[in-house]
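Now for a specimen:

…
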Amino acid sequence: MSTSPILPWPSSRKLRPWQQAAFDGWSSATQQNFCVEATPGAGKTTFALKCAHTVLKAQTVRHVIIVCPTEHLKVQWMKAAHGVSIQLEPRWDGQAWIASDMHGIAITYAQAARRPQSLAKICRQTPTLVIFDEIHHAGSNLAWGDGLEVAFASAKQRLLITGTPFRSDDNQIPYIEYHDNIGHSDIVYGYAEALRDNVVRPVVFHTFDGQFAWQGKHQGYSVNAATRLDAVESANRMRVALGANGGWVQTVLNEAHQKLTQVRAGEHQDAGGLVITKDKEHARDVAKVLHRITGTEPVIVLSDSNKASQRIKQFANSSQQWIVAVKMVSEGVDIPRLRVLVYATNVMTRMYFRQSVGRIVRIQSHLKQDQHAHFFMLRLHQLLEYATEIELAVQHMIDERARYVEDREIERDEKQPEQLSFDLFQTSSGEASDVVYNGTIIARDAYVQASLFPDVVEPAVIAYKQKTTAPLPALQQPESLAVAERKEQLRATLRNLVGIYSHRFSVEHRDVYAILKRKFGKSVSKCNVEELQKRIAYLREI
């Protein structure tokens, strides 16, 4: 059987703007290696398949080899490629050839390291595009890196994609260009840009503290998550905190299930939750606790195997509530209906944390209302730092988005919008934990709901008269500026305030401006100094 033809790229698979820009950059590049770093959920697979489809259809390459971290992802790549008429074999067994009815193969990094000479022969014999999925894995094992360099030295083109920023460490990644020991990407598309483009969901980080006690070698300990400890006792604290029958795990699972139930009660009726655990035994114990809480058995994924892949597939296509896994679902696995995640693992690296966040941010176009994702975690300083980094990444969008809306405001239709308000009502506080949202650590009793539309009540987080809240922008009072200069400064302050409240309440900037216009009677572009100051004062008082 000959290879099936490469059909035209499906008209239904229109590239997102970032994907098109990345594709254009790759198409015009002259170097052999091209690296794209894009946030989890942005659509790296579609971009890479567009590149593969283009060169296969143009017959500038004969084969495509996908190298990915896990067995499950091989199957996922195979199915995604089939959707654009590319046929991949995910069960390659090490031979130095690719079947004539296949356009390529999908293999793991471990397979590539075991049989580099066979892959090298394929690349020497036929023009080949190699796509490295989550290329940073090649830096985690020296043998893998060495094997990749042997296997794909003769590849015609190498496309490297990752959702994780490169680190500076001793194990440099093959085919990555380094500057001052930092890996360089040709295209970078971060979480902030993806959130701006409505490509990913916004994430609310729910943090939970507790009191953890154990007997050390020389003394007993009773500490909370904020207590500074050495490496040994920090590990002991994690062991106690993550104990499946302990108070922290049971409290967090209860809260997470309540949140999932709330999400499923709305538009997203098949929303799912994921618990990431530290090992197989822990996963089984956590699953038992979830069973007691929910009344139904969660799906358990314990290994990187075909059986595990089947379980993930079944969960992804079902309406089951919870899946419990060790590491397999932490990266690359596409289950868009996941909306809630419990981080019950002792892995404390920034990379793993970000990969985990990526499991719940994939947007679903059929959902019209709020698509906030919810991430539950221990209130450790290190994890708070990671969460705050992610949230702060979106802040640079606020001024840009607000300025655009203000500039367009004068062109707005005079039609009155729907009634809007910032009336707030506080939910029951429950556990004395915190929320990280909009780059701010907020006490849990400030985790409230905002009634933004008459028929839509969505969860939001505000910094409401809390000491932990970052202060609002200071209102400058210049003494020797022209009126026009003063107004520009006041408008800048107002834009910042509008942006902050827009992001916190999950409403468009124009809706905030609409409230101001209805209350004060004119658009911002027509305001004098005093009128601008009144609007600023009003937003500060909310």
In short: The longest strand covers residues 338-344. The chain is about 40% helix and 20% strand. Residues 410-432, 442-479 have pLDDT under 50 and may be disordered.
